[in-house]
């Protein structure tokens, strides 16, 4: 009887040890937003445009000046930029929007987010063929 209890204690210890080692293998994965998903949620900022200009070889001080001159005299700029990237009717990727704004900044073009014509021109530089839903989405962004 004594031999059976020792064998049982060892067996229980081995089972516990094996289950502890195998437990992480069977655990369900907890998904946290990846960096790319977080980047998709963020709206475009001056810093993003500056960083792209700097990565293309522009000096830091010049990139700062050009990115701030891009949105001169615009009200609610952050809200409008957010809606520009997140509006499902426009379906503009954040990277393409940043690339287009960087090109505008590089050539000293202003983008007036309060002007329907200016915003349509900007969106057409990314996506040339706009339909009626996209044009109405741009009108809503201008009204913000």
Automatic annotation (TrEMBL):
Signal sequence residues: 1-27
UniProt KW Signal keyword: yes
Domain of life: Bacteria
Keywords: Signal
Protein name: DUF4476 domain-containing protein
